[in-house]
Amino acid sequence: MNAGDPPADELTPAERRLTQHLELLRASPPTGAPQLAATVIRGVRWQRAVREPIALVGVVATAVFDGLALLFGPPAGGS
Fold first, then answer.
1. Are the C-beta atoms of 5 and 23 separated by less than 8 Å?
2. Which of 11, 22, 46, 77 could pair covalently with 15 via S-S, beta carbons 3.0-4.6 A apart?
3. Residue 57 forms part of a structural domain
4. Based on the structure, what is the number of domains in the chain?
C-alpha cells in the first residue's frame, strides 16, 4: 500500500479484491516479448499517419449529411 492509501479495514470489498490482484501482480510481474516495444511503436506510427485524414473524412461526411438534411428536410415553421 502507498502512504496515502486508507487502512485495509476502510476498503470496500471491490477495493480489497483489487489490492489482492495487484499484490499478486507485484510478486510475479509479466515479462514482455522482445519485439513488443517495436511492434507497438510501428502500430502507433501508422495510426498517427492516418488519424488526420480519417478525421477529415468524418468532417466532410458530416457536412454533406447536414447539407442534405437542410435541402431535403421538412420546411421550417411548416405544419
1. no
2. 11
3. yes
4. 1
